[in-house]
Amino acid sequence: MKKSTEIALATSIDNLPRVRVVSFIYDEEKPGIVYICTDPNSPKVTDFNVNKHVAFTTLENEHVRVRSATVAESKRDKHELQKAMIKKVPGYKEIYKQ
After folding, report:
1. Beta bridge partners of 23
2. Which of 73, 76, 83, 96 has the fewest Cβ atoms nearer than 10 Å?
3. What is the structure's pLDDT at 29?
4. Bridge partners, residue 55, by sequence
């Protein structure tokens, strides 16, 4: 999880799966928690609001697969998380500006 920058994140509504590739960060001081930054109006957030159960797998470097996870809005400072994303994910700064 240290080297990977993207996961394939699977959601499901009405038994119809949806998979998206998203950038993420993993804080070793908070094991078991993966952070993604996304627009609150994005379709994936709509999916999260309907069904908080997700699965994901890393796409490069070390292989991690999680079959049963739940999504929750982070209580951590959003600017702190965005800075961490900019530091870890190449090109994220340009995405964040949009």
Report:
1. 6
2. 73
3. 85
4. 10
Please give the C-alpha separations between residue 47 and each of 34, 60, 88, 93, in angstroms, as whole numbers: 17, 25, 26, 25
Residues 6+ apart with CB under 8 A from 88: 5, 25
Closest CA to 22 of 92, 78, 93, 97: 92
Rounded to whole angstroms, the Cα distance separating 73 from 75 reads 7
3-state SS assignment for residue 78: helix
Query: With a threshold of 0.70, does the pTM exceed it?
Result: yes
Burial 55-78 (b: 16+ CB within 10 A, else e): bbebeeeeeeeeeeeebeeeeeee
Q: Please answer whether residues 20 and 36 qualify as being in contact, where contact means their C-beta atoms are separated by less than 8 angstroms.
A: no
Tokens read off for 57: 């797998």
Cβ proximity of 89 and 36 under 8 Å: no
Summary mean pLDDT of the chain: 88
CB 68 within 8 A of CB 56: no
